[in-house]
Each structure stands twice: as C-alpha cells, then as structure tokens.
C-alpha cells in the first residue's frame, strides 16, 4: 500500500516491526469520571520533564468538545498538549474526538464511527518514537465501553502499559478504588501506584479514608493532591513521587 494512501486518508502508517520503539509509559485511569485524571497525567508529564525526560501525553478517546475556529477542541487534550515537551499532530495525540459529552461508544455510534484499537496502537507507537515516555490518559473509569466487546480496560491491555490509578477523594471512594484495583489486577496489568486527589474539600474523615486506602489497595501512593483551584499540573508535579518503572533507563 502506498505512502500516499496513508496521507490522503489521514491515517498514520504503521511502523515496520524493526522500527517499533522500545516503549516506556503509563496508562492513567481513574475510579470514575471527573476525578482528576487529566490533572494527574499532565502532572506526570511535568514531573518526568523535571527529571530530564522528553514526555508526551496521549488521550486516545475524548468526548465533549467545543467548536473553535472551525475545529473541535477538548480541554483535556489541550492540557496534555500544553504539558508535553514534544509537539505532535493532534490526530496522533487524540485519534478519536466526539463533540457531545456522553459515553464514547454512544458518541461513536451517533457519529457512525467505530473506535479501532489497532489504530490507537499505531498512533501510540508513533508518539513513542518521538519521546522517552508517553503518558496515556483513559476516558472515564477503567471499564468504559468503547465498542462491541472493547472497553478502556481492553485498551490498557492492548497498549500493554503499567497503570497509574487516580482516586477521587469523596464519600464512596474506598469501594470505587478497590473495585478498580481489582479489575486492573484481573487483567494482569501492573498497577505501579495510585494518586489521591481531593475533589471534595469538605470530605469528612479524610485521613481515615486515606489510611484505609493505603492498607487495602496494596500498591504505593504516589501523591496526595490537595484541592487545587484552579487545577495546576505544575503543583501536582511537585507532589508526585515518580514510579521507578518510569525512571528506569
């Protein structure tokens, strides 16, 4: 198939097997939607850059965008782009973008599109060839449907990346965190750490909840992020203890 075909269809050409990069990165998931995944992902990118790595963010699927200057713009994608030390085509950073802030498999059906895991993998490999580390942010929680028999857990497996779990600190977070951690382990994925993000500044008994999470999740807590208004990934970077997996040569 000619190189011209890939250009005309705006599809990234798969790399030959001998050119595939030695990938290093992580998949950022969360216990729910709107719990700070993007903030933590951008914070991880800034923290990696402080350590001298080139780092780039990826949001394979995003739902919820505004029309600006003739283009659909998603705030999460823009935050990852702003944090990244490498500039890349938006079509690689965010292969699937839907206008309505609804479940992505429903948005895809409305748009008469299908979310293709192989296409996302190809985009990821292209980004991995451009930077030392790729930080991939999921959409919603860990088991969000993306299509028939395919969800964000399956995407994490397809990419084969270790997982960082973001726990939104609010009532019910222990149950949500344990269920998410269990789902990650059930797929033989390596959860390399979790981040506690204070999304409810009025949460009662926060210290006791944190102690329970620490004891029950069974992987290192990388940071506790206080309620930030406005959210600031540079502040998050200063709080993070990066996993050794991301720092290994």
Quick recap:
By secondary structure, the chain is an alpha/beta fold. It has 11 helices and 12 strands. Helix 2 packs parallel to helix 3 and helix 8 runs parallel beside helix 9.
Note the topology.
Elements: H1 3-8, E1 25-30, H2 37-50, E2 55-58, E3 61-63, E4 66-68, E5 71-73, H3 75-83, H4 90-93, E6 96-98, H5 104-110, H6 117-128, E7 133-137, E8 145-147, E9 150-151, H7 152-159, E10 163-168, H8 173-186, E11 191-197, H9 206-217, E12 221-225, H10 233-239, H11 244-247
Parallel strand pairs: 1-7, 1-10, 2-7, 3-6, 10-11, 11-12
Antiparallel strand pairs: 4-5, 8-9
Question: Can you give keywords for this protein?
Answer:
single chain, 249 residues, alpha/beta, Rossmann fold, 6-stranded parallel β-sheet, two-stranded parallel sheet, 11 helices
Description:
- The chain is an alpha/beta fold and 249 residues long.
- The protein has one domain (23-242): Rossmann fold (3-Layer(aba) Sandwich), CATH 3.40.50.300.
- 39% of the residues lie in helices and 20% in strands.
- It contains 11 helices and 12 strands.
- The protein has helices at residues 3-8, 37-50, 75-83, 90-93, 104-110, 117-128, 152-159, 173-186, 206-217, 233-239, 244-247, and strands at residues 25-30, 55-58, 61-63, 66-68, 71-73, 96-98, 133-137, 145-147, 150-151, 163-168, 191-197, 221-225.
- Strands 2-7-1-10-11-12 form a 6-stranded parallel beta sheet, sandwiched between helices. A two-stranded parallel ribbon has the order 3-6.
- Strand 8 (145-147) and strand 9 (150-151) form a beta hairpin.
- Helix 2 (37-50) packs across helix 10 and helix 8 runs parallel beside helix 9 (206-217).
- The longest helix is centred in the first third of the chain and has 14 residues, at 37-50.
- The radius of gyration is 18 Å and the shape is globular.
- The chain starts with a helix and ends with a helix.
- Residues 1-11 have low confidence and may be disordered.
């Amino acid at each position: 198939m000619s190189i011209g075909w890939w250009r005309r269809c705006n599809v990234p050409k798969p790399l030959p097997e001998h050119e595939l990069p030695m990938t290093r990165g992580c998949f950022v998931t969360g216990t729910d939607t709107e719990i700070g995944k993007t903030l933590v992902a951008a914070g991880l990118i800034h923290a990696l850059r402080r350590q001298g790595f080139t780092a780039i963010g990826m949001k394979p699927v995003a739902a919820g965008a505004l029309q600006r200057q003739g283009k659909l713009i998603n705030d999460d994608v823009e935050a990852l782009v702003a944090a990244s030390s490498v500039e890349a085509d938006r079509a690689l950073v965010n292969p699937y973008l839907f206008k309505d802030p609804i479940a992505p498999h429903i948005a895809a059906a409305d748009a008469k599109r299908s979310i293709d895991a192989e296409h996302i993998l190809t985009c990821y490999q292209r980004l991995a060839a451009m930077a030392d580390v790729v930080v991939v942010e999921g959409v919603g929680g860990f088991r969000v449907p993306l299509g028939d028999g395919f969800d964000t857990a399956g995407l994490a497996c397809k990419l084969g990346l270790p997982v960082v779990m973001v726990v939104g600190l609010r009532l019910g977070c222990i149950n949500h965190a344990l269920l998410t951690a269990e789902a990650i382990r059930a797929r033989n994925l390596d959860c390399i750490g979790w981040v506690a993000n204070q999304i409810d500044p009025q949460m009662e008994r926060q210290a006791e909840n944190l102690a329970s999470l620490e004891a029950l999740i069974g992987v290192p807590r990388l940071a506790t992020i206080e309620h930030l208004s406005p959210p600031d990934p540079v502040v998050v970077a200063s709080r993070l203890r990066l996993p050794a997996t991301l720092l290994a040569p």
